[in-house]
Design goal:
Keywords: ATP-binding, Endoplasmic reticulum, Glycoprotein, Nucleotide-binding, Signal. This is Torsin. By secondary structure, this protein is an alpha/beta fold. Helices cover about 50% and strands about 10% of the residues. It folds into 3 domains: about 45 residues; about 210 residues, Rossmann fold (3-Layer(aba) Sandwich), CATH 3.40.50.300; about 55 residues. The strands form 2 sheets. Strands 2-3-4-1-5 form a 5-stranded parallel beta sheet. The protein has a two-stranded antiparallel sheet with strand order 6-7. α3 runs antiparallel to α4 and α13 crosses α14. The radius of gyration is 24 Å and the shape is globular. The relative contact order is 0.12. The N terminus is likely disordered.
């Protein structure tokens, strides 16, 4: 990207110089005008803007990414694809898209957020229209939550005013002050505009470990009953998940009115990962590094992880979270 921008920059000035050298009748005003036009073209090219040249949804690519890069999450893949696809194709949505992703560490919540961003914004997670908040980093002091509430409201309003297709990702929701997230509830409502600003095309994604133990328990029960994990359906988890996060007095959704008012479109469960999924993660990471996938190495990496329950060793304790560092060790 930087090389292309430099090339465009040099081309602009080469063009101006060529005009002056080849035709002395070209006036300074014309040259300046051409330079200004080309300069504006370069500015627009190198500065991300809130238009279709920088923001466009690729549904086919998202589907392919979910299928080839996200493992063991048949429920999450299906919900995410349908929810994002339907929302982005709707030119007049009634409210922002609000997704709440739940599951244990390393099951793919952050990764899915990244995939969504990469298939909407040309710059992906580096887009200036994608905003990530981490509870322990951005809201570290519970006693200051009133200040955080005001700052958060202003930040969201300012960024959506700048670009209606903004995305906001809230990580570690289970560590957030319970009263903080309700401060943005008005922006998630069915309003055409609030103080002249429309929030209906924005996307809000909440990431949380809350409910992870119950999701794991359900998956383990299916395994003990000899049933395939693919038989687990959203209906087996959604109601339970909603009640857990709503009543978790240590989490950001505790008694949250945005849940009470059904403003969260989908509570998305992420299942614990098994040995085979960890192997797939290792192979995918090799491909991402442009290396030939090595099954022996992937198998060694997967075996090096800790699994539970202790006797059965069914699920990876950290999912695929440590795959990158483990792969560095074995390659």
């Amino acid at each position: 990207m930087k090389t292309t921008r430099l090339y465009l920059f040099l081309t602009i000035f080469s063009t101006i110089a060529l005009l002056v050298d080849t035709d002395e009748s070209v006036t300074a005003a014309v040259v300046i005008g051409i330079g200004a036009t080309l300069g504006w073209t370069m500015y627009k090219y190198s500065h991300e803007s809130c238009d279709s040249s920088w923001i466009y949804f690729n549904a086919t690519a998202l589907e392919a990414d979910l299928e080839s890069k996200l493992f063991g999450q048949h429920i999450a893949s299906s919900i995410i694809l349908k929810a994002v696809n339907g929302f982005m194709k709707n030119e007049n949505p009634q409210k922002p898209l609000v997704l709440s992703l739940h599951g244990s560490t390393g099951t793919g919540k952050n990764f899915v957020s990244k995939l969504i961003a990469e298939n909407i914004y040309k710059e992906g997670m580096d887009s200036r229209f994608v905003h990530v908040f981490t509870s322990t980093l951005h809201f570290p002091h519970p006693s200051q939550y009133l200040t955080y509430k005001s700052q958060l409201q202003q930040w969201i309003k300012g960024n959506v005013s700048n670009c209606e297709r903004s995305m906001f990702i809230f990580d570690e929701m289970d560590k957030m002050h319970p009263d903080l997230i309700d401060s943005i509830r008005p922006y998630l409502e069915y309003y055409d505009k609030l103080d002249g600003v429309s929030y209906r095309k924005a996307i809000f994604i909440f990431l949380s470990n809350s409910g992870g133990e119950n999701i794991t328990r359900t998956a383990l029960n299916f395994w003990k009953d000899g049933r395939k994990r693919e038989e687990i359906e959203l209906k087996d988890l959604e109601t339970m998940l909603t009640l857990i996060v709503f009543n978790d007095n240590q989490g950001g959704f505790f008694r949250a009115s945005l849940i009470d008012k059904n403003l969260v479109d989908f509570f998305v469960p992420f299942l614990p990962l098994e040995f085979s999924h960890v192997v797939q993660c290792a192979l995918a990471e090799m491909r991402a590094r442009r290396r030939k996938p090595d099954m022996d190495v992937a198998d060694k990496v997967a075996k090096d992880l800790v699994y539970f329950p202790e006797t059965e060793r069914v699920f990876s304790v950290k999912g695929c979270k440590t795959i990158v560092s483990k792969l560095d060790y074995y390659t």
